[in-house]
Q: What sequence folds into this?
C-alpha cells in the first residue's frame, strides 16, 4: 500500500516581475537571463502572505481531489521559511482550511515536495492515514539578495499542493543529502540573545552557482536513472519527466544524459523562475490541468536543492 495523487492545486502571486524590470534594478539584461537560465519572468509577493498562498493551493487541491478538509489525516508543508517559526506553516494551513489532523513543516529546500511524498508514504504504509495534504510553498523574494545579479534573477515566489489518498501509484522513491553549507546557504538572520557574542548574518541567499549547476545535472540524471530502475521500468517507459525548474540548461543537460527524449520533460521555468519546493508541484499541477499527463502515464519527478538534497521518484498518474 502506498498512495495515489488524487488532486493538485497551485497558487502564485499576482505580480509579474519581468527580466526588463529586473534590468532596472541590477546590472543585467533580458538576453543574459534568457540564454543562461531560460527564465523570462517570475511572480513576486507584494500583498500576498505565504499563508494566503498555501491556503489557496490547499483548497484548490482539495477541490480537485474531491476531498474535504475535515477528512484529512495529516498536513505536511514543505517550506524553508513559513510565516512564523511557530506555529508551523502546516498548522496555519490546518487552521485556515478547517482541518483537524496533525500538521508539521518539513525543510528540504527545493527537494521538499519529493521529501514530503516519501514521509507521507510512511503514513500510508503504516495505515495511519487515508488522506494526506502536502503543500510546498516558498517565498524566496524575502530572502533574496536583490543587489546580487548572479542570484536575484533566478528565483520567484509560489507553490502548489497535492492531496494523496490510499493507492499503489508510488512505484519508487529516493532521497539523498550531502551536508554542505558552502555552495548554497541562507542564514536565519536574527539572534535576539543578549549573551550571543557574534553578529547575526543577514537572512539572504548566497550561492556558488557553478558548483550547484554541476551537482544539479548529475543529481537529476542519476536520480531519474535510479528511480526508473528501482520501479522495475526502462527509461523508455517514462511518459513525462517533471524536473525541478531551476534553469533550462540544467534540464537540457540532464536530459542529454538519459534515454528519455527532451520533449518528455515538462518545463515552465520561463514563467516562474525557481520557486524552490513549489517548483515540482506547480509543474505537476500545470502538466495535469493542461492534459500533458493523462491517466495511466508513468511520471518521473526529480529535484535538487540546498542541503544539498535531492529527491526523485516514479509515480503512475491516476487522475
Ligand atoms: O535550486 C537550486 C538553486 N540553484 C541553481 O539551480 C543554480 C545553478 N546554477 C546556475 O543555474 C548557473 O550557474 C547560473 C545561472 C547561476 C550562472 O550561469 P553561468 O553560465 O554559470 O554563469 P557564470 O556564473 O559563469 O557567470 C558568467 C558571467 C560572469 O561574468 P564574467 O566573469 O565572465 O565577466 C558573471 O559576472 O556572467 C556574469 N553574470 C551576469 N551577467 C549579466 C552573472 N550573473 C549575471 C546577470 N546578468 N544576472
A:
Amino acid at each position: 500500500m502506498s498512495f495515489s495523487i488524487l488532486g493538485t492545486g497551485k497558487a502564485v502571486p499576482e505580480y509579474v516581475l519581468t527580466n526588463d524590470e529586473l534590468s532596472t534594478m541590477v546590472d543585467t539584461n533580458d538576453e543574459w537571463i534568457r540564454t543562461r537560465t531560460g527564465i523570462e519572468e517570475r511572480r513576486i509577493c507584494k500583498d500576498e502572505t505565504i499563508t494566503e498562498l498555501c491556503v489557496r493551493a490547499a483548497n484548490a487541491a482539495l477541490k480537485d481531489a474531491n476531498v474535504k478538509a475535515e477528512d484529512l489525516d495529516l498536513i505536511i508543508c514543505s517550506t524553508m521559511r513559513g510565516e512564523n517559526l511557530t506555529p508551523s506553516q502546516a498548522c496555519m494551513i490546518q487552521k485556515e482550511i478547517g482541518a483537524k489532523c496533525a500538521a508539521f513543516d518539513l525543510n528540504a529546500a527545493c527537494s521538499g515536495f519529493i521529501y514530503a511524498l516519501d514521509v507521507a508514504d510512511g503514513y500510508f504504509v503504516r495505515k495511519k492515514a487515508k488522506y494526506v495534504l502536502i503543500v510546498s510553498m516558498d517565498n524566496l523574494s524575502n530572502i533574496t539578495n536583490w543587489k546580487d545579479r548572479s542570484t536575484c534573477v533566478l528565483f520567484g515566489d509560489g507553490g502548489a499542493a497535492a492531496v494523496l489518498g490510499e493507492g499503489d501509484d508510488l512505484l519508487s522513491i529516493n532521497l539523498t543529502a550531502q551536508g554542505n553549507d558552502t555552495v548554497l546557504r541562507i542564514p536565519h538572520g536574527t539572534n535576539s540573545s543578549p549573551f550571543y557574542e557574534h553578529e547575526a548574518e543577514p537572512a539572504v541567499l548566497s550561492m556558488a552557482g557553478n558548483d550547484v549547476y554541476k551537482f544539479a545535472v548529475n543529481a537529476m540524471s542519476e536520480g531519474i536513472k535510479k528511480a526508473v530502475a528501482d520501479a522495475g521500468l526502462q527509461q523508455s517507459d517514462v511518459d513525462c519527466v517533471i524536473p525541478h525548474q531551476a534553469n533550462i540548461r540544467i534540464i537540457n543537460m540532464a536530459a542529454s544524459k538519459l534515454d528519455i527524449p527532451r520533449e518528455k520533460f515538462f518545463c515552465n521555468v520561463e514563467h516562474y523562475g525557481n520557486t524552490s519546493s513549489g517548483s515540482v508541484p506547480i509543474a505537476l499541477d500545470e502538466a495535469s490541468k493542461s492534459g500533458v499527463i493523462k491517466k495511466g502515464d508513468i511520471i518521473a519527478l526529480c529535484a535538487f536543492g540546498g542541503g544539498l538534497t535531492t529527491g526523485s521518484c516514479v509515480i503512475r498518474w491516476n487522475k
Summary: The mean pLDDT is 97. The radius of gyration is 19 Å.
